[in-house]
Every structure is written in C-alpha cells, then in structure tokens.
Design brief:
By secondary structure, the protein is mostly helical. It has three domains: 2-46, Arc Repressor Mutant, subunit A; 52-93, Arc Repressor Mutant, subunit A; 98-142, Arc Repressor Mutant, subunit A. It is built from nine helices and no strands. The termini are far apart.
C-alpha cells in the first residue's frame, strides 16, 4: 500500500508542485490510509521532492504571470494550506511591479482607451478587484488615464 501511495504521489509531483496539504488531500481522495499518507509525505519531504517553499515560489510566479494580483494569490495559497509566513515571504520577495501588472491586465482586457464614464471605470475596477489587486494598485492602473 505504501509503494502504491508513493508512486501516486510521485506522479502528481511530476506534473507540478503541490503543497503538503494538497498532496495529502489528493491521497486521501484515493482512499489511502492516514498512516500511509503520513509516511509518504514524510519520505517526500526528507527526499526534498515535496517542499512548501518551492510550491509557494512557483505558485506566485505562475499566478502573477497569468495576471492575478497579490490579494487573490494570497487567498488561493491560504486555501491550499500554505503557511502565512511563506505567503508573505514569497509575495514580498517576488520581483513584481503589482501596479504595472494591474495596468497590463486592464489594457489587455479593455484596451488603451481610458474609461469614458463612471460606469466603465467602476466595471474596470471590479474586474481588477476580482483579479486580486489592492485598491492602490487599481488606482495606479487607472491613474493618468483621465488626464
């Protein structure tokens, strides 16, 4: 049973990084016993095949590359069981201009033209908020458009 669980976990990790929480949950869904899962997780951590640090770093990079902001990335990582310390570290250490990213995302979705009316501006702000940008980042994305 241990070998089967280990193979299953290794196959999942071969596709992409997982947090300990995610991998544990996926192994539970495959009906592996809790003691076997604990041993597999411990072995993978010991062999450095499973790392919440590596997961956090790659997750921030992947989600920001897809146009998501720090607020949403933080929430998603919390849902995936990543410790707050790691979330803070990798969001802060990421060499990302979040306001610039918000601007790029806005332009990609709505074009270069500034919002013509309050309703358009509100729509663009809601979109950026949904994407996970802070109020200051949203304002920076729209700043200078009204000049």
């Amino acid at each position: 049973m241990y070998d089967k669980a280990l193979r299953s976990a290794a196959n999942m990790l071969a596709r992409r990084e997982h947090s300990e929480f995610e991998l544990t949950r996926k192994l539970q869904q495959r009906d592996f016993p809790a003691d076997v899962i604990d041993k597999v997780i411990a072995a993978l951590i010991a062999d450095r095949l499973l790392s919440n640090e590596r997961y956090a770093e790659s997750y921030v990079r992947m989600r920001s590359a897809r146009g998501y902001g720090p607020v949403r990335i933080r929430l998603e990582m919390q849902e995936r069981g990543v410790e707050e310390v790691l979330i803070e570290t990798y969001l802060d250490d990421a060499d990302i201009d979040w306001s610039g990213l918000a601007r790029e995302v806005r332009v990609r979705k709505f074009g270069e033209e500034p919002p013509a009316a309050f309703e358009q501006r509100a729509k663009q702000m809601r979109f950026l908020q949904y994407r996970g940008f802070s109020h200051a980042q949203m304002n920076a994305a729209l700043k200078g458009l009204d000049d």
